Amino acid sequence: MESSSSSSCELNFTFAFNDVHYSDKLLRIEIIPDPVCASSQPKSDHYSDRVRRHRKRKGRRNFIINSARHRKRKLQKVLKGNQPDMDDGKRKRRQNFIINSARHRKRKRQNVLNGNQPDMDDGQRKRRQNFIINSARHRKRKRQKVLNGNKPDDETCVIPSSGDEVANISDSNCSAATVVRVKTLHISSPILAAKSPFFFKLFSNGMSETKQRHKTKQRHISLRIYASEETAFMELLQFMYSNTLNITTAPALLDVLMAAEKFEVSSCMRYLINSPMTPYSASLYLELPRTVDAVLPLIDAAKQYLVGRYKNITMESFQEELMALPLSGIVEILASDDLQVESEDIVYDFALNWVRQKYKCQEERRKVIHTELALLIRYPYMTRQKRKDLIIDFEKEGVFKLLLQKLENHFCILSAGKHFPLNRCCVPRAYKGVMHMSLTREDWVTMFPTGNLFSEAFPFGGRMFVLLASCSEAKHDSSDGFGLAVGMRKGCKGGSIDADFELAVMLRPTKKFATMYTSNFTFSPGNLWGSQHLFNVPWTSFIAEDSPFFIGGSLHLRAELTISRADN
């Protein structure tokens, strides 16, 4: 992902990056080898170690929480007597033991803290008191660190206590690791401190504990990182100056996000979410692992963008973009309930066309159809003829039998005794069709005072629909009747369709369609439904040269139908 524009609320300090004239400190980056567990991994698993460390930290946090809940539940059971495997005497003795033990520990601790131990001198008593207090504080801090995800052996760096110290990795194996190389950068502490609480603490601690005579030393800040973090850390530093990212792969983006989370650069995530989304960037975000909590907002934003942009997968202007999308993007689009298509036949044709263009190898194509695409088609909402064609197509690709085995408990009966699996999610989509009709002034003059004109037939939902424009002269009021109706053509095969429809006309000077009538109707062959008074104006105003309904001598009508129920 490459972005040339920075956030509107952020300033660009690219000119000051690694420039001695605009810097007040010298950052010494010490790069050490990766841990043995990370270096032994295959190169193809670029970020699995980071994901594993994240899961380990999360598992430790859950263990502490669940252990505390388990002890509390066990104690409550004993106190309430909810132990059927014990007799009354044993249960009572267990309750008394727990209560007396808690009281004894509390009294013993109070005696130490209050100094009520005559067999000890003042020194021993003071040391015992300090030991109890410090132990409680240590347990509380340790538990809090784990719950907050700040376990020391999972972190990369520890903030130094003075300006000339190194921010070391606290892990015992890594702190003694040999530095393989060193990078030196001129940095501006106000810029980094404003973007990151980590660097703010780093510079604040160094300056507060460094005496005046160490002014030359406090300019030198050392930081120790792993070799696998070098590229991401340098990219993050450049972002903190320029507010732009130049990343083209999902692993590299994940590395930067993990580094931003570790060094507390929250503006990096805000920048990615607020940046204008493109099909390429959305596809990049979908490749990120969903096991990392830090990237979930980006994945959700990418899903919403793709589903909203490609609601109509039949638009000619989007065909090139759709064919270039990866499998993850196509899966999110086809899984959406908001696709605006005339029928599920279009979804099936698109999916088959995409997979045949994207995967030339039949084995790869068979795997993608079997594991992903075939499970996204909503077969009950396809026409009978298309389901017959589907069997032939899938048998040709060699996946029909595999799908039957995978979803053998869900099937619908087709012709010739064949069966085909139903989709696990058989919710209908927003099957929508748009029909246009343009009439000139001469056409309306021909129809006036009474007459009508049919449009060409439009395929929608496996049926053929028509528009009917009509004209009727007013008898008792001043408004003539200019109507528009939608209907299913006579002799059309298939059952009835319940549909919400909307009739609109293009107006000037905006040249945008304005809704004039909405309704719901059950269409069956030969039935028509619409409005007889679509405009509510007299004939002279309607046909006049300055009429808002005619643009370039023509009146443009539109009908939108959305299927709510269809009988196969």
What key attributes describe this structure?
elongated, 568 residues, 3 domains
Average pLDDT reading:
76
Cα separation of the termini: 46 Å
Q: Any low-confidence stretches, pLDDT <50, length ≥5?
A: 2-9, 38-46, 151-174, 206-217, 409-425
Q: Please, how many helices? A: 21
How many domains? Answer: 3
Overall description:
This protein is an alpha+beta fold. The protein folds into three domains: 10-39 and 48-225, no CATH class; 341-421, no CATH class; 432-566, Apoptosis, Tumor Necrosis Factor Receptor Associated Protein 2, Chain A (Sandwich). The chain has 21 helices and 16 strands. It has helices at residues 36-39, 48-80, 88-114, 122-148, 172-175, 189-195, 197-208, 215-218, 230-242, 250-262, 266-274, 279-286, 296-309, 319-324, 327-334, 344-358, 362-371, 384-397, 400-406, 441-447, 539-543; strands at 25-32, 166-167, 181-187, 220-226, 411-413, 419-421, 432-440, 451-454, 458-460, 463-472, 481-488, 497-507, 512-523, 528-531, 550-551, 554-566. Strands 7, 12, 13, 15 and 16 form a five-stranded antiparallel sheet that branches. Strands 8, 9, 10, 11 and 14 form a five-stranded antiparallel sheet that branches. A hairpin with a 5-residue loop joins strand 5 and strand 6. Helix 12 packs across helix 13 (296-309). The longest helix has 33 residues, at 48-80. It is elongated. The model is unreliable at 2-9, 38-46, 151-174, 206-217 and 409-425 (pLDDT under 50).
Please describe the topology of this protein.
Layout lengths: L24 E8 L3 H4 L8 H33 L7 H27 L7 H27 L17 E2 L4 H4 L5 E7 L1 H7 L1 H12 L6 H4 L1 E7 L3 H13 L7 H13 L3 H9 L4 H8 L9 H14 L9 H6 L2 H8 L9 H15 L3 H10 L12 H14 L2 H7 L4 E3 L5 E3 L10 E9 H7 L3 E4 L3 E3 L2 E10 L8 E8 L8 E11 L4 E12 L4 E4 L7 H5 L6 E2 L2 E13 L2
Parallel strand pairs: 1-4, 2-4
Antiparallel strand pairs: 1-3, 5-6, 7-16, 8-10, 9-10, 10-11, 11-14, 12-13, 12-16, 15-16
Helix pairs in contact: 2-4, 6-7, 9-10, 12-13
